[in-house]
């Protein structure tokens, strides 16, 4: 093509993140994307809700620069439309503070889901319309079915299937089911030059 | 490509009439909030309004009490599809926390002091929520429904009464949350005047 390509719907960064121009990222300086992450339109990430109460520095150590990451996302994550990521908040040593929200690699988050977890492991699938509440911890290889409400402070062990309001562990992933968590193919199907899905 | 990217939030839809507002001087309102409508919007002392929340007064006036928190994506005063809707707007008592993505329909809707509306709930037109209630995540309160004080709505509409008697602790937690949010959210009330 001789002409410069038109401005696409996505911003593609050097590390391969595909961020929709219609996504609302508040406080971008506090949001870390690991690379190859897809952020679809109307996703909202509250990076401005940073931790205010700092952990005590280790004894004898000099004061390290405060870590202000509010939301950290790993590689090959997929945030579907209208997902909301907001760091969890609680009262810590007498003052209210937000804590960082950490998401691992190959995490799929379905449409309309609100995530306020403390940490989400690798290879996690979260369905549509879920609410993951404050300080929930989801380990690796977990499937959260559509419409689940994961209660605050719940810890979900690896290889679980979670469903219900409130969410409970309803089953265990069978041995052969790990491949479906692979998000590399899904990553290729969106962006400014989407590839057709592999047959 | 520059190494430092200063992203700008996509523009918000500000179509429609600009409502008359009555703000307390200690209000914290993000300039990314959306205020629409023709009736008055009143917000009392130390209330916090997060970015991207939408407050609409096209059906009736909106009153937000003292020390309320309205989180992102909340739609306060949404027009109802209910035909025989009551007149009037929305009125929130003091210490009300409305979490992300909730929809509060207009039409004489009232939410009592110290109540919490959790993520993604919908409060129908004309519903009356008592004091210190908890409407848990993704709950739907029907049009005109009445919740007595201290009611907890959870798990697809099951109800029970909160007998813990901890409304004072809850208020304290909201006060602490507001103290921090006021420092964190850049406020620009003049934009809406």
From TrEMBL, chain A:
<dbReference type="InterPro" id="IPR047125">
    <property type="entry name" value="DCTN5"/>
</dbReference>
<dbReference type="InterPro" id="IPR011004">
    <property type="entry name" value="Trimer_LpxA-like_sf"/>
</dbReference>
<keyword id="KW-0963">Cytoplasm</keyword>
<protein>
    <recommendedName>
        <fullName>Dynactin subunit 5</fullName>
    </recommendedName>
</protein>
<dbReference type="GO" id="GO:0005869">
    <property type="term" value="C:dynactin complex"/>
</dbReference>
<dbReference type="Pfam" id="PF21711">
    <property type="entry name" value="DCTN5"/>
</dbReference>
<keyword id="KW-0206">Cytoskeleton</keyword>
<comment type="similarity">
    <text>Belongs to the dynactin subunits 5/6 family. Dynactin subunit 5 subfamily.</text>
</comment>
TrEMBL record, chain B:
<keyword id="KW-0963">Cytoplasm</keyword>
<dbReference type="InterPro" id="IPR011004">
    <property type="entry name" value="Trimer_LpxA-like_sf"/>
</dbReference>
<keyword id="KW-0206">Cytoskeleton</keyword>
<comment type="similarity">
    <text>Belongs to the dynactin subunits 5/6 family. Dynactin subunit 6 subfamily.</text>
</comment>
<dbReference type="Pfam" id="PF21711">
    <property type="entry name" value="DCTN5"/>
</dbReference>
<dbReference type="GO" id="GO:0005869">
    <property type="term" value="C:dynactin complex"/>
</dbReference>
<comment type="function">
    <text>Part of the dynactin complex that activates the molecular motor dynein for ultra-processive transport along microtubules.</text>
</comment>
<feature type="region of interest" description="Disordered">
    <location>
        <begin position="1"/>
        <end position="20"/>
    </location>
</feature>
<dbReference type="InterPro" id="IPR027777">
    <property type="entry name" value="DCTN6"/>
</dbReference>
<dbReference type="GO" id="GO:0070840">
    <property type="term" value="F:dynein complex binding"/>
</dbReference>
<protein>
    <recommendedName>
        <fullName>Dynactin subunit 6</fullName>
    </recommendedName>
</protein>
<dbReference type="GO" id="GO:0007052">
    <property type="term" value="P:mitotic spindle organization"/>
</dbReference>
């Amino acid at each position: 093509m001789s002409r410069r390509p038109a401005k696409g719907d996505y911003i593609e960064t050097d590390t391969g993140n595909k961020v929709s121009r219609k996504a609302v990222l508040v406080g971008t300086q506090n949001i870390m994307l690991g690379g190859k992450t897809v952020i679809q339109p109307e996703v909202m990430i509250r990076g401005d809700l940073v931790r205010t109460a700092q952990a005590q520095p280790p004894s004898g150590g000099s004061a390290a620069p405060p870590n202000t990451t509010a939301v950290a996302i790993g590689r090959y994550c997929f945030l579907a439309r209208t997902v909301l990521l907001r760091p969890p908040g609680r009262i810590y040593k007498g003052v209210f503070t937000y804590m960082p929200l950490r998401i691992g690699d190959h995490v799929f988050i379905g449409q309309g889901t609100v995530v306020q977890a403390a940490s989400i492991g690798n290879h996690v699938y979260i369905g549509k319309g879920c609410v993951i509440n404050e300080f929930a911890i989801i380990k690796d290889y977990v499937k959260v079915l559509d419409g689940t409400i994961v209660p605050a402070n719940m810890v979900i062990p690896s290889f679980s299937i979670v469903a219900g309001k409130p969410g409970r562990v309803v089953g265990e992933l069978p041995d052969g089911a790990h491949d479906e968590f692979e998000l590399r193919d899904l990553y290729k199907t969106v962006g400014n030059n989407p590839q057709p899905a592999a047959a | 490509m520059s190494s430092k990217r200063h992203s700008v939030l996509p523009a918000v839809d500000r179509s429609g009439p600009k409502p008359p507002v009555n703000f307390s001087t200690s209000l914290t309102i993000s300039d990314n909030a959306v205020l629409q409508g023709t009736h008055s919007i009143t917000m009392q002392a130390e209330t916090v309004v997060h970015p991207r929340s939408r407050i609409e007064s096209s059906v009736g006036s909106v009153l937000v009490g003292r020390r309320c928190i309205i989180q992102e994506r909340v739609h306060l005063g949404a027009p109802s599809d209910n035909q025989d809707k009551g007149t009037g707007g929305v009125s929130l008592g003091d210490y009300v926390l409305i979490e992300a993505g909730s929809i509060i329909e207009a039409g004489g809707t009232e939410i009592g002091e110290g109540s919490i509306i959790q993520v993604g709930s919908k409060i129908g037109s004309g519903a009356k929520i008592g004091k210190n209630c908890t409407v848990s995540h993704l709950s739907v309160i029907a049009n005109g429904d009445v919740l007595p004080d201290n009611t907890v709505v959870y798990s697809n509409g099951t109800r029970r009464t909160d007998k813990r008697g901890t409304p004072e602790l809850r208020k304290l937690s909201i006060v602490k949350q507001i103290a921090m949010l006021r420092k964190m959210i850049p406020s620009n009330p003049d934009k809406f005047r």
